């Protein structure tokens, strides 16, 4: 693996650390101005493609529902090639509604000039719906 791939893995690792802190401004600061975030499935208010601003709004809403104001992301395994970094990841958060969010993901990040320019998020949509959306 080359220097670019190692640097891009570092960018993604640092992003997950900031994400886990719940610092929305820090999270958004890790993204390029034209960044997009896509989430699999048909989860109301979560799935689909969001621009940087829309992603920030979604983050704020999700953080409000958690006890700590954040969802912890733990990277488990990386694969990097060029500007693309794929990461198997586990999340954890205790919600104010008494539920626990503990999902598994496969993220594909695109890193451009040290910032994240796009994310594709593949996850267990049934678990997300049951924890965040179901009555």
UniProtKB/TrEMBL annotation:
Source domain of life: Bacteria
Matching Pfam families: SnoaL_2
Domain SnoaL-like, residue spans: 12-118
Name of the protein in its database record: SnoaL-like domain-containing protein
UniProt source species: Pseudonocardia halophobica
């Amino acid at each position: 693996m080359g220097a670019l791939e190692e640097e891009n893995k570092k960018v993604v690792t640092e992003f997950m650390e900031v994400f886990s802190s719940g610092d929305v401004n820090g999270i958004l600061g890790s993204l390029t101005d034209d960044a997009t975030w896509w989430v699999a499935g048909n989860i109301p208010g979560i799935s689909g493609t969001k621009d940087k601003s829309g992603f920030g709004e979604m983050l704020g809403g999700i953080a409000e529902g958690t006890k700590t104001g954040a969802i912890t992301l733990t990277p488990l395994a990386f694969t990097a090639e060029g500007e693309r970094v794929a990461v198997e990841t586990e999340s954890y958060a205790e919600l104010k509604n008494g539920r626990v969010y503990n999902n598994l993901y496969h993220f594909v990040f695109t890193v451009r000039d040290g910032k994240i320019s796009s994310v594709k998020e593949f996850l267990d949509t049934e678990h997300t719906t049951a924890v965040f959306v179901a009555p």
